[in-house]
Specification:
Layout: E1 3-8, H1 12-21, E2 27-33, H2 63-78, E3 84-93, E4 123-124, E5 136-145, H3 147-160, E6 164-167, E7 192-196, E8 213-223, E9 230-233, E10 242-248, E11 255-260, E12 262-263, H4 272-285, E13 300-311, E14 316-321, E15 327-332, H5 342-359
Parallel strand pairs: 1-2, 1-7, 2-6, 3-9, 7-15
Antiparallel strand pairs: 3-5, 4-5, 8-11, 8-12, 8-13, 9-10, 10-11, 14-15
Helix pairs in contact: 1-3, 1-5, 2-5
Length: 374
Amino acid sequence: MVNDIIVVGAGVSGLTSALLLSRSKANTVTVIAKHMPGDYDIEYASPWAGANFLPMATAKHSRWERRTWPELARLVEQVPEAGIHFQTSRIFRREKDMQGSSCPTDPMFDRDPWFQSVLPDYKELDAAADPRGHDSGCEFKSLCINTAMYLQWLVGQCLRNGVVFKRAIISHIKEARAYKRADTAASPPAITIIINATGLGSLKLGGVQDESMAPARGQIVLVRNELHPMHTTSGTDDGTSEILYAMQRPAGGGTILGGTYDIGNWESVPDPNIALRIMRRVVDLCPEIAGGKGIEGLSVVRHAAGLRPYRKLGVRVEKEALDDGTWVVHNYGHAGWGYQGSYGCAEAVVELVNEIRVLNGQDLASEPKLFSWD
């Protein structure tokens, strides 16, 4: 019996889910999406991401990131064509930001964080290393992803496993069934399972219409200047929606200067005033990035804005039976941590698909391991 898996959405969550599901010979996998890797559209979040590994979950909900780090680290060491490299990360804290803040990234700034046992070389920084205006900081080994390379690499890995890609626009999640491939006349009949990885699209997609979804707008400046290590701070003096982070993508991908985390803002056009503040903040913190010349020393590639798929209720990774008996496995609402939780969440998607298969009488004894590090 062959199961039809239709993944709706070709961002990092959908592609990683498709990749892990395609490792089972019991599944045929089709990815359908309005946007594919290579596209740059405000509706398509994944190309705009930084993207790095800075834990944002609480210890209670850290499974996604704990399970993703070893696989991304393995890719750095063994698969250079994936477009990922290690980069030291420094996080700086201000006491005034730590009092009653509601920023979604708060756990990143904990003084005794759960991730110190996961990410290598963690240490608290000496007070002398803290830049002016900051009260404490930490350092650890992280990584940064060239999203243009990595998304295409995921597509290539999926194609190697027989995944089919189709451009499509659907208005209701049930419409994905029209793209099933397996011979449903087989005995016993195959199961059709839809994976909903539509990100912010889940707000309006029929059959989902998750009203807890909202955009978390992120504006960035991409420059040619190099920066080591990556930097993140707990806050800025330019408003609660403006934040500071900077990271260098591998393989000539440039350096990302950020940014904003503006929940509810749908604007796709970069704001020149915000861009100026972003550049000033980064140069003030790391003057070496511009060779001591101020923002005039920055070589700008482009200004950009993307919409993170923020979900007020947190990420949704669960199975659901629709009223017509169709099974849907949801994997959306990752806000700003889609890449760093991608393998952990996709692993859970496979587990939920396998639960559905068991309910339909399938034997899972011969299923392969998901990761080489298991």
